[in-house]
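debug: dumping io for the single-chain case to check the tokenizer round-trip. Nothing else runs in this session.
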Amino acid sequence: MYRNSFRLTNREIDEAFATRQFRLVFQPKIDLARRTLAGVESFARWQHPQFGVIPPALFLPVLARQGRNQELTRFVLSEAVAQLVRWRASGETATVSINVAPEELADGSLPVSIRLALNAADLDPSRLIVDLPESGLAAEPDRARDTIHALSEIGIGLALECAQEPLIDFTNTDTATLDPTAFQEFKIGGRAIIQFASRIEGTGLGLMRSRLEYATSNQMKTTAVGAETADTVSLLPSLGFEQAQGNAISSPLTPQALLDFDASTAMESLLGHAAQDASQKVQLEEFAPPKADVSDKKSRIQVVRGNAKVELMTQGKTGGQTHVIKLPDPASVTAGKQRDEQTGVPKLSFFTRLQTRFSRTFQA
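debug: decoded output
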């Protein structure tokens, strides 16, 4: 209902730019091997006086339909450069990435705007990275090639951002059309990261693998975008990724909050929890069934995780008996990370208590 009734007019957009209702937030990008901050990616947010913070999924399509993507890009560029200048004064050396709309790869004014902004701030061009969408390269390859060449001459970093659905066969593309040496970074993100990370032990990575190999063979840094779970982040290096960003590591932060972000601490906490969760996964084969005369009885173990209970059943020739053990609420899993306030002894985790109750039932 909210989406259907939501309307933004050109007048409101004019006012938003004029009164600086748009602002930038920055999502950390992490070097997975060193667990250090490799850079940040900037995202626009709209603080509307009536609607509050408008999600990008609502206002970006509006700007696109009204042909105002270029205005937003120029605003983001200006704010990103201003942030880099502030960080330079404080000794911060992180790079900042900005996104451009697909149609801007056919816009000859983009390189001019970037060059002017960097020159005005007397800023090292390598501190700025521009993410170029695959869809823009596929739509108008000739004009995109000219824009990429002009951007490369400025000395900024260029990242090739893959589309959710493949539009370009990078391995079979003529280098005269798409020169891989122009790019320093190769970004793959969204649901594909989750899907392929979960299939690491499956039948292979197909397109994902070929694209990662393409990036590596052309000396591009490989970055996973949209890593939303600790398990995914922990698998990324084995997939072939060198860098990662996503809400599992950190949501986009204000410039002030970013000053307090510590990459090493964030990764240690994230991967520590992932390892703990992995060690606590229920593996039924770890539990031996009750000792019984196989000619006379059959045993079954059923774990109903949603209701936090375990059903143990032994069945003989003349009938069966069912034992139901009700366990504490699943929320008490967090107790495994706590210590008794008086003794200092670690409290048993949920799964430790689960195993204990199995053992006691079998011995009864």
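debug: round-trip ok. DSSP finds 13 helices and twelve strands in the chain.
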